[in-house]
Design goal:
The chain is of the alpha+beta class and 201 residues long. It has a single domain, classed as 3-Layer(aba) Sandwich (Aminopeptidase). Strands 1-2-3-4-5-6-8-7 form an 8-stranded mixed β-sheet, sandwiched between helices. β5, α4 and β6 form a beta-alpha-beta unit. α1 packs across α3 and α4 crosses α5. The radius of gyration is 16 Å and the shape is globular. The two termini are 25 Å apart. One of its GO terms (biological process) is siderophore biosynthetic process.
Length: 201
């Protein structure tokens, strides 16, 4: 499907047609002025608030995003489905994140957070293909001779059974429960080799 004209000139980090959905999945880096209102609205959606707890007013959300965008250990993305922005993602270097207090990360370990912001996209089976695409991007993102990512990590809220199940279907393996500053979480790992094999099935 061709992207809407307003989106065609954007710089996407990932853009591929997903045959399981018959739709194009794409991700691009967050831009503060372009995405502030969108992310603010998503963070205030009832299905997002319990797990992200970032239901701030607009000014506080601007400050939060400014700080996040200036943090070199992470990259923020807007996820698209057939040209429609519908999800928010954070990818980070595990060694520079709070999760490093919970296990011994390798230098190339990447981590991800996600949410589907638009309610009309919920419950339609989109989360797993989107997660596979973002996980694939993380393995590709840092695939250099000096620093090749072999493991992607995640730590969903332990209460979020649905998301934990989706991570498992993507190839993530539950390790143990951990305590993070903002939540009790499920520490999960996905290694490159297992992910590639699962993707080929």
């Amino acid at each position: 499907m061709k992207f809407p004209q307003t989106e065609e000139k954007l710089q996407f980090s990932y853009k591929k047609f997903d045959r399981s959905l018959e739709k194009t999945i794409a991700f691009r880096p967050v831009e503060l002025e372009k995405d502030l209102d969108r992310i603010h609205r998503w963070m205030n959606e009832p299905h997002v608030i319990p797990f992200w707890q970032l239901n701030f007013d607009r000014d506080r959300m601007r400050s939060h995003l400014e700080k996040a965008l200036s943090d070199r250990h992470q990259t923020l993305y807007i996820g698209y489905l057939d040209g429609v922005p519908m999800s928010y993602w954070e990818a980070y270097w595990a060694k520079d994140d709070a999760i490093a207090q919970c296990y011994e990360p390798d230098a190339g370990d990447r981590g991800i957070h996600l949410l589907i912001g638009e309610p009309k996209f919920l419950g339609k089976g989109y989360a797993l293909p989107l997660l596979r695409a973002m996980t694939n991007l993380q393995f590709e993102f840092s695939a250099t001779p000096k620093l090749q990512t072999q493991k992607v990590v995640t730590e969903p809220d332990i209460r979020n059974a649905k998301m934990i199940h989706i991570f498992k279907r993507c190839g993530f393996v539950f390790q143990r429960e951990i305590e993070l500053p903002d939540k009790r979480a499920a520490l999960m790992f996905c290694d490159r080799q297992s992910f590639r094999k699962k993707s080929e099935q």
